[in-house]
Every structure is written in C-alpha cells, then in structure tokens.
Write a structure and sequence with these properties.
Low-confidence stretches: 1-45, 542-546, 636-646
Number of strands: 42
Helix content: 25-40%
Strand content: 25-35%
CATH superfamily of the largest domain: ATP-grasp fold, B domain
CATH architecture of the largest domain: 2-Layer Sandwich
Mean pLDDT: 87
Radius of gyration: 28 Å
Oligomer: single chain
Largest sheet: 8 strands, antiparallel
Shape: globular
C-alpha cells in the first residue's frame, strides 16, 4: 500500500468512439492468415501476457495500445504531470502518474516504471522508441524483477548500442563497415588526430543512442573542437554518456535500413528495406518502402547482411539494421536500432503485417509467424512526419496549442499515427512530432500522389508546422524521380525554399469574402440575442435604405498591407477593387463536421476552401494551396514595438539555458557562440548577431527562458548614440 500511495493512480475508460473508427492495421489478405496462425500457435506459448505496460508517451504509446486491444491484452499507461490529459492516458485501461515533466524525472525513471508494473500486475513492458527502449540497465532490471521486456536481450542492446563495439562485431560477421575510429581513448587530442587521419569531412557520433542526438558533421579541423564539445553535451543529456566515435563522412549517401525480426528459437527474417535519406538536423522527416531504384539482387544482399548482423548478437524481437549506401549501391553498416523504429508503419503497409503484434507474440515465446519465403512485398508506402517546427527558420522546433486540427480520412491505405487531439498542447519538454501520415499505393507514383493529396487535407492552426515544406519536398522533380540522398535538402534548398511571391489577388478576395461572411454570421447570431433593431450591430448586409454600400478593408499579405474597396451589391454579391483591378465575388459559408467551409466564385471561377479566422489571421485551406492573410491591428491597440530586442540576442524558443559562454564586458564577433539552449530534446547554440561588446547577460546556466525573451544585450554603439541624439 505504501508503494501504491507514492503514485497517483488514475483509472480511465479504455474505449472511445473515435478509436472505433480508426482503420485496421492489416489488409484483408493478411488478416485471414493471422487467424490461421493464431489457431496454430495459440496465444501463450510458454509465457502468458494479459497486461502490458507501455513505458512511453504520445503516438507510439497509442500505437502499441491499439494492437494490444485488438489482441485482448490490457494496457497500462504511465504519464508525467505535463501529460495528465494526453491521448495515451485516455486510451489506456489504467494510467499512473510517475513524476514531473522533465523526462529524467518521469519517462526515464526506471524504478518508478518498474514500481508501476508491479502495482498494476503487468507481465510485460513495451518501451516504444526513445526513452528507455535501448537502455541495457532497464532491460536487465526487467529481467531481475521477472517482467518481460518486449525487446531484445540486454546483451544485444549493449553490443549494438555502443557503436564502436557494434562495428567490430559486424566486421567479424562479414558485414561491410565504414572506416572510422571506435577506440576507448576519448581525449580531445586523440579524436582530433584520428579525424585528421581519416580525412575531412568526418562525422562525430555519440557511441550510444540515435535520432541524430550527439551527431555533428565536421567539414574542417578549424570547427572540430566546438562541434565535439557540442556533441558531447547533447549526448550526455540524451544518453548519459558522452563518449564519441569518428567516421568518414560519405558524401551524398543514401540512408537505407532493413527491418529484421528474431525469435527465441533462433529464427531471423528480414522484411525488406526502407529509404530514410531525406533528413534535416540528421533526423528523418520522410521515409519510404521499398527503397526507390534498388534492384532485387541488391535488396536480397541487404536483407541477408541484416540477418547476419542480427544473428551475430542472438537478436530477438524487432530491430533495424541501418546502412549507408553510395551512388553505386555499395552499402556499409552504420548502426543497429534495437527497438521498433518510428517509421515501422511503411514496412507494415508493404508486407501486410502488424509488427507490434509480432513483438507481443514473440515476447510470449512464439515463433516468427512467417518464414522468409512467405514475406512478400506489395506496392509502395510513404511516411511523412508532421512536426511542430518552422522550416523557414532552420526547422526550429516549436511548442504551443493545436487550436485547429483536421486530418484526411483514415482508411486501409491511409494511416494517421498520432498522440494528440485538437486543443492539446505540443509540449516544450518532448519531441515536437505531431503525427505520422502513412500512405500506401500500388506503385511509388500512386503512393506519392496519395501522400500529397493527404498532406493537403492535414490542416493545423496554432503553431508552425512543416506540412507546406513536406508538400514542396514531395513535389520536387528529383524526389519524384527517386533521386534521394542525405544532402537532398541542402542541395535543393533554393527550390524547396523559393522566394515568397505576393498572394494572388483572387485569393485576397476569397479571404476578404470569408471575413465579411463571418462578420455577417456573427451579426445574425447577435440579432437572435437582442430585440434592439436599431443597434449598429443589427445588420452587416450593406443594403441599408436600398443603397449600395462600400467599405474599405485592409488585409496584410506577409508584411505588406493591401487595400481592398468592397462594394455590397443589391443581389448579395460583392465588387472588390484591388489596385486597378475589380473582381466580382459571390459565396456562402457552410459546415461539414466541425469545420467551416467557404464556397466562393471570383470572376466566375468557383473554389472551395476550409476557413478559419483566429487571432487576426484568416486561414484558407484547399486542395490547391493554403494561405494565411493577416488582419492588421490598429496602432493604438498594437503591443510595444519589438525594438527593445534589437541589438541583442533573443531566445528562438522556450528552453533551458545549458551553457553560457560570455559575460558583461566581453567583446564578441558576429557568429561567436553566446550560449546553448536546450529545448525539444535538442541543443541550440545562440550566436552573436553582430560584432560588439556585451552589456548584460540576462540568464544563468540552468534557468529557463521563454520564446522571444532577450538573452544578451549589447552596448550601444557610438553611431547609434549619435543617431538617437
């Protein structure tokens, strides 16, 4: 009872009507096969799993729960105080609070999670990905406590989790590896010497973990030390280990990985490859299966090499062997992720499998359900990771509320893997991924068309997202041709980030009409509430005393104000003049579900768009485009100018100050490092915007800074003083 009282226990309803509408993870051709094999193998096969604890949060926790429920297995959630009202908490049969928002005090607390498993009488723990999923000590602790760890043996996690060890094992197993230094001497001088021996550019990588954490590309010796220190700090924060390895950086490589599965009976199979080459900040944003342009013979060799890698460490469960592939399709072992990957759904889509079900069955002692010959590849699948981030600001992660969230309809060829709902907040404490959009098609072109159509229907208001960037990326001619590599975004930066053009006048007319019709709807609602027929709010029709009424509107297109003269015509239409051109505009608002749509005709050209007006911004989402048009706030209502922030450095996002490099009185050059901010599980170095002398540093190490808060103030220059005088 004492242990139970240490944790706040929340028993929640497991089923929600919305989850009943989610698509099955399996296509019909595989569902029948599963029934046959379930009858053959049973559900216990040595170890009975009737309740599983998911030691994770967000979309992967929801994903595991979905399959567990399908199998009749009860689910237990754990959550931090920041996640009290999260979707994974609502979805679970039981949920337990395990501490404050910082992951070190909650999702990384092994003792608390084991304690919950005991209280809830869960026979198994599924770690998801990230957090404790590749933690050797946690896997060992589960074993000591008699709890099934749904993952590989701790020995495999240890051998493959330490990149230097894994390279040696792979070389011995006949798997090709990249040249590098994986030694125990971690002195700065030793690492620098090996980098010089290997030859720049080199990759500095944390020996533990993954996800791009503790990873830096170094182009020259000049930047080696700073990049090494930064990688070490980030690795220490993420994995509690700052040991590094050095590898030769292969120019414009492809990142190709193979899904493998092993069981307790010595069987290992591969489920083909995924291409995860297109990345930013060394993190994947779009994945596909199979890899484009990979011939069957290369595919077979990749799979067989991955199986050799898994067998070399007696692997059990789901794992991914990652390779670097050059332009001639030569491939080299990079690392092995000893867990379920974020991008596993694309493999499920092309093989008709449920890999979480495989995990649960194999953890219970069953054999792999299919032999290598029975695993077939059908069609093509894409996964697009939808992030709260600003691609136009170096993909800076963000946080905030999902004020509006609407998605494409889920079906057998479209999956939406998410852990959030409309109204939820994307927390600053965790990864900024909002969802994964997964689509399947009979071939790559069909799947790509489906992906772009679905992205158009994924509409979010309240924070920056990468949806428009994903549309630009997936529509790039080189991506359409399958010519992908890890340098894709930098190489095609100009086309992926084109100079913004002024919004078409026809679209401005749509925005103006949407605003007018919204005002009219509010006026009509007001009239129902009042009997004052002479109220100035009692009419917005513009048709008073049988006179055509004209009003002048100002809308803001990016940073430019646009004047629109709107004439309310007798027949309910509108004439809108922008500069020297006049448009005839007519339309109505209507509702579909929880969304408002604008049906509009501009000079006889009809269109339909989802309409949202929020915080002085008009949002229009259609299958052709999405636009945002501002409604300028009068000057007397505007907030104080942001000039106070000029001449210094400001926080690009809310985060914790990890390191401060300067103090008052220091002289710095433009580009010098001022401080390091930790936010969204990543390290961000704040650079000096100009040459100058530091007047004041506003934050100490360990303190938290809000977004747009001034971090460092520069002394006023003489020229500035003269101008102000």
């Amino acid at each position: 009872m004492a242990a139970a009282s240490a944790l706040s226990v929340l028993l929640l309803a497991a089923e929600r009507n919305r989850w009943q509408r989610l698509p099955s993870l399996l296509r019909p051709r595989r569902r029948w096969a599963w029934k046959q094999r379930t009858m053959k193998y049973g559900t216990t096969a040595g170890r009975n799993i009737t309740k599983v604890l998911i030691a994770n949060r967000g979309e992967i926790a929801c994903r595991v729960m979905q399959t567990a429920k399908k199998m009749g297995v009860q689910t237990v959630a754990v959550y931090s105080e920041a996640d009290r009202n999260s979707l994974h908490v609502d979805m679970a049969d039981e949920a337990y609070c395990i501490g404050p928002a910082p992951s070190q005090q909650s999702y990384l607390s092994m003792e608390k999670i084991i304690q919950v498993a005991k209280i809830a009488a869960a026979q198994a723990i599924h770690p998801g990905y990230g957090f404790l999923s590749e933690n050797t000590e946690f896997a060992e602790l589960c074993k000591q406590e008699g709890i099934i760890f749904i993952g590989p043996p701790s020995s495999a996690i240890r051998d493959m989790g330490i990149k230097s060890t894994s390279k040696s094992i792979m070389a011995a197993a006949g798997v090709p590896v990249v040249e590098g230094y994986h030694g125990t001497d971690q002195s700065d001088q030793c690492l620098r010497e090996h980098a010089g021996r290997i030859g720049y550019p080199v990759m500095i990588k944390a020996i533990r973990g993954g996800g791009g954490k503790g990873m830096r590309i170094v182009m020259s010796e000049k930047e080696f030390q700073e990049q090494l220190e930064s990688a070490r700090r980030e690795a220490k924060k993420s994995f509690n280990d700052d040991a590094m390895l050095i590898e030769k950086f292969v120019d414009t490589p492809r990142h190709v990985e193979v899904q493998v599965f092993g069981d307790h009976h010595g069987n290992v199979v591969y489920l083909f490859e995924r291409d995860c080459s297109v990345q930013r900040r060394h993190q994947k944003i779009i994945e596909e299966a199979p890899g484009p342009g990979i011939e069957p013979e290369v595919r077979r060799k990749l799979g067989e090499a991955a199986v050799r890698a898994a067998k070399a460490v007696n692997y059990v469960g789901a794992g991914t062997v990652e390779f670097i592939m050059d332009s001639k399709h030569n491939f080299y072992f990079m690392e092995m992720n000893t867990r379920l990957q974020v991008e596993h759904p694309v493999t499920e889509m092309i093989t008709g499998t449920d890999l979480v079900e495989w995990q649960l069955r194999i953890a219970a002692g069953e054999k792999i359900p299919l032999s290598q010959e029975e695993i077939t590849l059908q069609g093509h699948a894409f996964e697009a990771r939808i992030y709260a981030e600003d691609p136009n600001n170096n993909f800076m992660p963000g946080a905030g509320p999902l004020v509006h969230l609407s998605t494409p309809q889920a079906d057998l060829s479209t999956r939406i893997e998410t852990g959030v709902r409309q109204g939820d907040n994307v927390s600053v404490h965790y990864d900024p991924m909002i969802a994964k959009l997964v689509v399947w098609g009979a071939d790559r072109q069909v799947a790509l068309t489906k992906l772009r159509s679905s992205l158009r229907q994924y509409n979010i208001v309240g924070l920056h997202t990468n949806i428009d960037f994903l549309l630009s990326l997936s529509g790039h001619p080189m991506f359409e041709a399958g010519n992908v590599h890890t340098n894709f975004i930098p190489q095609h930066h100009r086309e992926l980030f084109p100079t913004r053009k002024a919004t078409a006048k026809e679209c401005l007319c749509q925005a103006a009409l949407g605003l007018i019709l919204k005002e009219k709807a509010m006026t009509n609602a007001f009239k129902l509430q009042t009997s004052d027929q002479f109220s100035p709010f009692a009419s917005s029709s513009g048709r008073r005393l049988n006179i055509c009424y004209t009003r002048n509107m100002i809308l803001r297109d990016d940073k430019n104000d646009v004047a629109i003269a709107v004439t309310y015509n007798h027949n309910g239409s509108y004439s809108m003049q922008i500069e020297d051109k006049t448009f005839q505009v007519l339309g109505t608002l209507y509702s579909e579900g929880d969304c408002t749509y604008l049906k509009c005709s501009v000079n006889g050209v009809a269109s339909k768009a989802k309409l949202i007006i929020l915080e002085n911004t008009i949002y229009l989402f259609s299958m052709d485009r999405s636009i945002q048009i501002g409604i300028p706030v009068p000057k007397y209502l505007s907030s104080v100018s942001s000039a106070a922030n000029q001449g210094g450095a400001i926080a690009p996002m809310t985060g914790t100050v990890e390191k401060v490099f300067v103090k008052a009185g220091d002289k710095v050059k433009a580009g010098d490092s001022l401080m390091v901010l930790i936010a969204m599980k990543m390290e961000h170095t704040i650079k000096a915007p100009k040459d100058g002398k530091i007047k004041k540093v506003f934050y100490k190490e360990g303190s938290q800074a809000n977004r747009h808060a001034p971090l460092v103030e520069f002394e006023e220059e003489e020229s500035d003083k003269r101008e102000s005088d």
